[in-house]
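Many introductory courses stop at the sequence. We go one step further.
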Amino acid sequence: MFYQPGLTPHNLPHDPFKACVVPRPIGWISTISPPSSSTTDNGNPAHNLAPYSQFNNLTFDPPYVMFAANQTTTASRKDTVLNAEATGRFVWNLATYDLRDAVNASAEQVDYGVDEFERAGLEKEYSTVLGGGEGPHGDGERVPMVKESPIKFECVHYTTLRLPGNPPMGSVDVVVGRVVGVHIAEWALMDGKVDVRKTRPIARLGYYEYAVVEDTFEMRIPGDGLALAGLEGNAMANSAAGKGKVEEKAKEQLEQDPLNSGLSGVDGQVDKRQVSTDFGAGTKPGDVERLMFEALK
C-alpha cells in the first residue's frame, strides 16, 4: 500500500503512522509549576507528572534529551511544556513494566495544578542538582521524581521547537533539555552496565499497544575504536579524542607561522593558555581554550 498523509487516504481502519515507528521510549516527565502560577493551598509549586511517547536522547557529550508534546484536545499546550519553559527544569523518569499502571494513570488529562504523583499513588523523592542549593542549577525549588523508577535524569531546559499542525492536537512542542544529573539504582547494574533485563523498560508501539524489553542481543559496528566509543556514548573517550585534535591543530598552526600564530611554546610544546585557532566548523577562537579545559578535566 501507499498513501500521502493529508492528501490521500490510507483506507485502513486505524491510522498506521505511529505503528510504523516502534518501539518508542517513553518520556515520563516530572515538573513543577512556576511561583506565579502555583495552585496549591500552601503556596508551594504544584507537581506535575506525565508520559510522552516521543522521547529520546540526542547526543552524549554533553548529554541532551528531547520529548515532544502534542497540544491537548482543547488546542492548548501541555502543562509539562509550560512548566519546563517557565522554570527551566524537568526530570525524566524511566517507565518500567512494574510501574505501567502508574504511567497510564498519569497520562490522563486533568486540570492544571493536579498532582499526578498522588493520583497514581507514587512516592516522591527530589532532585539533587536542580534546586540543591549548590552549583549553577542550585537555586529554586527541587523537582519531584518517581522514587520507584530505577533511572532518573535531571535536566535543564535548552530550547523548544514548535512545529505547526492541524487543530486541535496536531501542533507539537519539541522540548530539548541538557542532562545535569543522572540517578541509577544500584540493583539495576550488572558488571558495570545498566541491565535492561532488570529494569524492564516499557515502550510505546502503535494504537494502544506497548512493549517491554526483556531480552537483548549485541552487535559491534566495524571500524576503529573511537567509532565504537561514539556508538556506546563514551563521553570520556570523546573528550580525550577532542583534546588530542585540539593540540594537534594548535601545534600545526605554531609550526606553520610561529610569529603570527598567537601561540607561544617551548621545545615544540604548545602553551594551552594562548591557543587562538579555529577548531572545527563554527568554533570561535575563544572556544578552543574551553574545549581543551573540558577535555583535561
